[in-house]
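Give me the fold.
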Amino acid sequence: MSDAIRAFSSRRPDVETDVVPARWWEQDAPLRDGRAQVGYLRQPFDDSGLHTIPIGHEPRVACMPAAHPLACRGKLASADLRGPRRTSAASGCSTHRRGGRLHLKRSSFIASGHGIALVPLSVARSYSRPDLAHLPVTDAPRVGTCLAVLADRREKLLRDFLQIATATLRHT
């Protein structure tokens, strides 16, 4: 998103932009409560009442403790992950109802040896730390990414941003 924001800001220096953080389990909330006008969202999410523009897909990687026996491999298949306890991408909790609600807490939970999580590659890069390993999972479904706005929003400034951001993000 930083490339899209830079591109928009260079073309529209008169417009102030800001980034509103959102929890991954309610990533559409800032759009719905008015804190944000545009969302960069990863599927799945509730798209009712939203206009979405697909901009790409990203691979999922297995996030595990760096000392895990699988961590020395270059890549994994889903079958490699059947035995280890995995954390839930939907809830942020492990299958045993332990762990944190945020990626940072989940990362600490995993680094301490409690499970493996499948996460989008960009999330893994954001929460990179030396005690975690991130390995591609060759047969895991890719995560769709899109820009989203409330379906009834039609302002020119918003359309300009979507046009610039879509062109920028589809090229990266």
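The beta strands are 39-42, 50-58, 60-65, 117-120, 132-136, 143-150.
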